[in-house]
Design goal:
Helix 1 links the parallel strand 2 and strand 3. Helix 1 runs parallel beside helix 6 and helix 3 runs parallel beside helix 4. A seven-stranded mixed beta sheet has the order 4-3-2-5-6-7-8, with helices on both faces. The protein is α/β, with parallel strands linked by helices. It has six helices and ten strands, in the order E-E-H-E-H-E-H-E-H-E-H-E-E-H-E-E. The protein is globular and about 45 Å long. It has a single domain, classed as Rossmann fold (3-Layer(aba) Sandwich).
Length: 248
């Protein structure tokens, strides 16, 4: 793929990515009509090569998976910047080693969460992404962010949603005695791990699994799944009908 500095920047007039309409919200052309009952149909396809901003809160292993994939000839996306909600984390160090722009927008820097949300939105927008990836980013993205990037932000989760949403998915799954868990990649909406599901893969729970052992196996699957989903969105694209997502 071409150097990251040469990746084309999106234009707001070119209609590069469709804005999704979530379940329960009528399509823009039908908001004045109470007769519309069919779910909205949306085509989500990124330009190639797609510009990706990755948000991290920790070690950045998902980020590294995308960096490694982008280094391969023909991969249809490239990471153009990395953001975080805290300073001094390994994820930002990975960005620096890759010579990528890196930034941190922390909550204590701002008087209220809404101000933090607007600042994060502006920091991400400065890099003009086609796609935002929440890769172990441990903050809920707010209204300002979703207004700007809703429909083109994806998140990974270490469980088979809708089971076990939230920050404690792996121990919650073990506490419930499940025999199978897994990984999910989904579009981000205003809820906690509630957006339309893009891809899932199961991981068996072994009899002697602790949270750390199971999480490590799930993370290996998460990395592969995320790389494939990003490639798919920048390749064939996806069709979203209500909550159902299909790839050609």
């Amino acid at each position: 793929m071409p150097p990251l500095s040469t990746l084309p920047r999106p234009s707001c007039t070119r209609g590069r990515v469709a804005q999704l309409v979530w379940p329960g919200e009528p399509a823009p052309s039908a908001r004045s009509s109470a007769l519309t009952t069919a779910p909205a149909v949306h085509r989500l396809r990124l330009p190639v090569p797609a510009r990706v901003v990755v948000l991290v809160s920790g070690s950045g292993t998902l980020l590294q998976a995308l960096l490694d994939a982008a280094a391969e000839p023909g991969y249809p996306a490239g990471v153009v910047a990395v953001g975080a909600d805290r300073h001094g984390i390994a994820g930002l160090q990975r960005a620096e080693r890759a010579r990528l722009p890196a930034f941190a927008v922390t909550l204590p820097q701002h008087p209220a969460r809404a101000a933090w949300d607007r600042a994060l939105t502006d920091a991400v927008a400065a890099h003009e992404p086609d796609l935002v990836v929440s890769a172990g980013f441990m903050k809920i993205l707010g209204p300002a962010f979703l207004e700007r990037f809703g429909g083109r932000t994806v998140n990974t989760h270490p469980a088979l949603l809708p089971a076990f949403p939230g920050a404690h998915a792996v121990p919650d799954a073990l506490a419930h005695g499940v025999r199978v868990s897994g990984a999910t990649v989904h579009l981000v909406d205003s809820g906690v791990d509630t957006g339309p599901i893009l891809a899932q893969q199961a991981v068996d729970v072994l009899p002697d699994d602790g949270a750390d052992e199971l999480h490590e196996r799930i993370k290996a699957v998460e990395r592969r799944l995320l790389v494939d989903v990003v490639a798919g969105l920048a390749g064939t694209g996806a069709t979203v009908i209500g909550r159902k997502v299909s790839f050609p």
